[in-house]
Specification:
alpha/beta; Rossmann fold; globular; Carboxymethylenebutenolidase homolog; hydrolase activity
Length: 244
């Protein structure tokens, strides 16, 4: 039996009062949070399979905005249903066919245009979680407008060697106990990036951490995981700050 793809325990989640607001950009809705001062730096956050409304992802948007970035999480599912905790994993492959993390280019372009023209953004980075981590890996190979990227536990795309020729600095974050990504895949990613990648990159594996670990709100963290979650988030922000 195959392990459930992307599954992490969403458990009982505490409610979250968001700091940002929702906007409509062409055919996409998005959640935006801005810092209290003017900035021309922005970060796009790509949600996981639970979509742009999921409290955990909005918490991350607000967290990044608190570091001085216009931060936006667009609905990359374009109004279609995200994966729900009540859905059956047997149907996951079919659901993925209509929610392909490699088919996010059009939406990314719409959001980049909005950030540049409406928000005055000059430098734009991107971070993504799980499904969003795969989308980030894809976009960092395709879109030179993205100055830096952080891919958190996105399953590793391996359909060709060009998958390792990143356009701009990219940081890959993994949990040691992630049952959706084997250690062999991470080792292979490291070997291939060494061979093909001409820009700065980094790979880091966090001890004892499972899939989805870096998205938790403080009150949902287990004490033994908290230091690793906080370290991963600090590393993510530090990577963005280095380039944006």
């Amino acid at each position: 039996q195959m392990a459930d793809p992307f599954l992490y325990d969403t458990g009982e989640r505490s409610r979250y009062g968001c700091l940002g607001h929702e906007v409509q950009i062409e055919h996409i809705k998005a959640y935006v949070c801005r810092p209290s001062f003017f900035t021309d730096k922005a970060v796009i956050v790509v949600h996981d399979i639970f979509g742009w409304l999921f409290p955990d992802i909005r918490y991350i948007v607000d967290l990044i905005a608190g570091h001085g970035y216009i931060t936006i999480c667009p609905d990359f599912f374009k109004g279609t249903d995200p994966w729900k905790t009540t859905d059956h994993w047997a149907d996951f492959a079919d659901w993925m066919k209509t929610h392909d993390p490699m088919k996010v280019d059009k939406e990314a372009d719409v959001v980049l245009k909005y950030l540049k023209e409406q928000c005055g953004a000059k430098k734009i980075g991107i971070v993504g979680f799980s499904w969003g981590g795969m989308a980030v890996h894809h976009l960092m190979l395709k879109n030179p407008q993205l100055t830096a990227g952080v891919s958190l536990y996105g399953r590793i795309i391996r359909d060709s060697e060009e998958r390792y020729n990143l356009l701009n600095p990219t940081f890959f974050i993994f949990g040691e106990k992630d049952h959706t990504i084997s250690y062999d895949q991470i080792t292979l990613l490291e070997e291939k990036l060494k061979q093909y990648c001409k820009v700065a990159y980094k790979i880091k594996v966090y001890p004892g951490q499972v899939h989805g670990f870096a998205q938790l709100k403080p009150e949902d963290m287990k004490p033994e995981n908290k230091p690793y979650i906080e370290e991963a988030r600090k590393d993510m922000i530090d990577w963005i700050k280095m380039f944006i």
